[in-house]
# Entry
Amino acid sequence: MAIDEQRRRFCQAAGLAAVGVAAGACGGPACPAEPATCGTTAFSVGVRASDVPLGQALSFQMPQAHVFVCRDSGGVYALDAGCTHLGCDVNFVSQASGFQCPCHGATYDFDGDKPTGPARGPLVHYALCTTPSGILIVDVNQQVDACVRLKG
# Structure
């Protein structure tokens, strides 16, 4: 076999291997269906999951933290209200427009992601659980992946 033929086959094999690695990386690990149980530091927000309208973010100012409890098509989730720039509390605008920081103009999408400057990163997602009677509780000491939703 000629050297050019060997080189061509090697390049084809290397190219196919690279495509396989890239395709595997795009899938990523599956998101956990729901968070684990909340810890003893969790606090009640006083509403049930069914009280959170689709496409809305309800604000809860508690002694432990200011959080938003939101609902999208995947379920209910909790976000920290503190902008990742200097910690100012963001405001909910709409599902389409997401959240906006009144201090320096940073914005986030409805999932708390895709921040604009001067924000340094996405809003933090917290564990969201329910009491035996169905009341939502937030554990601000337990961060979860942004894809985690509580069904209900």
Remarks:
- Residues 2 and 8 are 10 Å apart (CA to CA).
- The first strand starts at residue 43 and ends at 48.
- Residues 1-30 form one domain.
- The mean pLDDT is 83.
